[in-house]
C-alpha cells in the first residue's frame, strides 16, 4: 500500500506501468497512458495497430481493455478506489479515464491479483491429459460475466467446428501477401537486435512475439494454434490437447465499448485462471475475417457476437513455462502534463 495518499500520483504511474504487462494481439501493446492529477487516461496507439489483420481496431481495443483492467488491479493493490469512464469525450482513440476517488482498504484478493499479473503468460504448448475441473471453468466464466461478457464452453462437436473455422481463417490469411508481411514484422527472431529502438523486422524493440515463445514444431492440437509463418525455438513434446476445454468469449453487441469490456473480462478471467492453475491461450484467427467470425456466431446460435476463442487446460508441472514476451519501457507508453 502506498504511504502517501495526497494525490495518488505515484499510484497512477505504477498502475500505468503495471498495465504494460497486459496481453495484446501479437504483443503490439497498442496503448498509451497519460497521467494527470487524480486521473489516468487510456489512449489507443494507432501506430501499433495491425492494419491488415485488425483494420477495425477490434483486437486493438480488446488489448487495451486488458491493460485497463491491469491498471485497476494495480490501483486496488495500492489501496486506491477508482471509477472508470469509458470513451469519456467521444474520441474513438480516448478509450477510458480512470479517476481516483480516495483510499480504500487493501484486500488479500487485490494483492493476489496484482501478484498474478507478474506470473501470467501465454503457453502455446499442448496441455496435459488432466481436464480442467468444472468448478474452475465456472469460476472463470463467472469472472468474465462480472464485465458483461459471456464465456460459452464448446461441446466436443463444436470444438471440431471451431477447428475447421480457425483452419479456414488462417488459410485465407496466408494467401494475403500484405497479411504475411505484417505478421513477419511482429513475429520471429530478433533480426534487428542491437539496433536502438528496433526489434525483429523493424518492429519497435520491446514488442512482438519472439521465437522463444513460438513452438519449434506445430503442436498436435485439435484447434490449430497461430501459424506465425516460421518455426520458433520453444521445445514441445508429443502431447495433445484432448483434455483441453475451448470457449468463446462473446457479448450482446459488437462495438468499441463492447470490445473494451471484452478485454477487461479477458484480463480478469485470465488472472482467475492462472490462480487456479489453468493455462489460457487466446485464439483470434477466427474473428479476424468477417466470414469466419460469422461462423463463430452460428456456434453461439446467433445470441451474441464473438470476441475471441480460448483454449484452457492444465499445464505440465514438470516443464517450466516459456519466457515472458518483451515489454516496451514505461517512458514509451506513459506521458504527463507539462509542468
From TrEMBL:
Q: Where is this region: Disordered?
A: 318-339
**Record InterPro entries:** Nitroreductase-like, Nitroreductase/BluB
Signal peptide positions (record): none
Taxonomically, which superkingdom? Bacteria
UniProt name for this protein: NAD(P)H nitroreductase
Q: Which organism is it from?
A: Luedemannella helvata
